[in-house]
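Design job #97: recover the sequence.
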């Protein structure tokens, strides 16, 4: 399989935009932007996120006992960009606050999923972080979406998506 064809094709698959956070034994906070988040199992309740082995946060997350997945809302593109930036203090903006499990979280997120570490699966150039869900938060605000290597959000004027509502047209946000 040719790499460019794979990345081009996978870019067509829309996904959520999350910021995954944790804190280590010294209290240092860690976080990264991820669109590889998905649910895995209901019984037991498991979710996963994939983290590149080259990431500066890899050691912190593969040894963390717990982590918090913040599902970003449609107006949180700046948060997504900040937590993807290399070499920056991603928490410097000060808009993260202790949330579920006391972990740093975004009060503006439209959902949060708090996990204890279940296992770490070796998967090529990534590690799969499997988490057991221990607490959740959700509201009905529209999410931020990643599609075609750009951030997208539900079209203005449409209500937030909810159970049973029809699919909304997405308008690409300015990159
Ligand atoms: C929309 C978006 C989604 C991303 N998803 C992932 C992901 O699922 N897994 C991952 O390891 N990195 C992902 N990244 C990249 C990381 O956020 C981060 O940029 C990368 O770990 C490099 O950070 P570092 O220089 O501190 O190592 C994503 C970046 C963006 C902008």
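Job complete. Output follows.
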């Amino acid at each position: 399989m040719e790499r460019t064809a794979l990345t081009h094709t996978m870019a067509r698959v829309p996904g959520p935009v999350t910021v995954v956070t944790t804190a280590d034994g010294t209290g240092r906070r860690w976080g990264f932007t991820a669109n590889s988040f998905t649910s895995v199992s209901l019984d037991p309740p498991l979710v996963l996120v994939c983290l590149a082995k080259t990431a500066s946060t890899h050691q912190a997350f593969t040894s963390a006992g717990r982590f918090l997945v913040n599902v970003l809302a449609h107006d949180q593109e700046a948060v997504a960009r900040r937590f993807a930036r290399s070499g920056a203090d991603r928490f410097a903006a000060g808009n993260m606050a202790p949330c579920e499990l006391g972990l740093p979280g975004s009060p503006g997120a439209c959902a949060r999923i708090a996990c204890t570490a279940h296992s770490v699966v070796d998967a090529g150039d990534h590690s799969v972080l499997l988490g057991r869900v221990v607490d959740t938060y959700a509201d009905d605000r529209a999410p931020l979406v990643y599609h075609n290597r750009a951030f997208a959000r539900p079209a203005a004027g449409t209500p937030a998506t909810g159970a049973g509502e029809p699919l909304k047209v997405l308008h690409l946000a300015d990159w």
